[in-house]
Amino acid sequence: MWGEQFALPEAVPGLRETRRRAKSGTLVSISAADPLNLTGIITPGKRVSSLYKNRVLYRDGVPVAVKGGEEIRIIAESEAGEEWNLKSALVRRSFSPKLRACGNRNSAPFPGMKKKGKDWIPIQTFGNDSKR
């Protein structure tokens, strides 16, 4: 699905402030399928395939490492010994608390479900399904 991203006019001053802010060295890893993956389009270097398993690591908005398939490439200059930190930040995932709770084997994968044996079933029944 192709499309364009739009923002309200009130967002422009905030974006300009972000650009002028001092560099903090913050690392951000995104999926290469994310619309923010502009590596090779507005930044120098090769384009990263938009596959959901591929990832791009940015430091202060500049791409520094890429994971394509099983290969991890450092694409920006980095200090000695920093390579391991970049690689681990690239593959580390952060999940919302709600999503993390779903990963807990004792909590339901979706609201309104209960465990029956090894399976999760809906708590509410509909129509004539009350004999479950």
Give a short synopsis of this structure.
It contains 3 helices and 6 strands. It has 132 residues and is α+β, with helices and mostly antiparallel strands.
Topology of helices and strands:
Layout: H1 11-20, E1 27-31, E2 55-59, E3 62-68, E4 71-74, H2 83-91, H3 97-103, E5 113-116, E6 119-122
Antiparallel strand pairs: 1-2, 2-3, 3-4, 5-6
Distance between the termini: 41 Å
Counting H and I runs of at least 4 residues, what is the number of helices? 3
> Biggest β-sheet: count, sense, barrel?
4 strands, antiparallel
The proportion of residues forming helix, as a percent range, comes to 10-25%
Shape descriptor reads: extended
Q: What would you note in describing this structure?
A:
This protein is an alpha+beta fold and about 130 residues long. About 20% of the residues lie in helices and about 20% in strands. It is built from three helices and six strands. The protein has helices at about 10-20, 85-90, 95-105; strands at about 25-30, 55-60, 60-70, 70-75, 115, 120. A four-stranded antiparallel beta sheet has the order 1-2-3-4, covered by helices on one side. A two-stranded antiparallel ribbon has the order 5-6. A hairpin with a 2-residue loop joins strand 5 (about 115) and strand 6 (about 120). The longest helix is centred in the N-terminal third of the chain and has 10 residues, at about 10-20. The mean pLDDT is about 75.
Give a quick set of tags describing it.
single chain, 132 residues, alpha+beta, 4-stranded antiparallel β-sheet, two-stranded antiparallel ribbon, extended
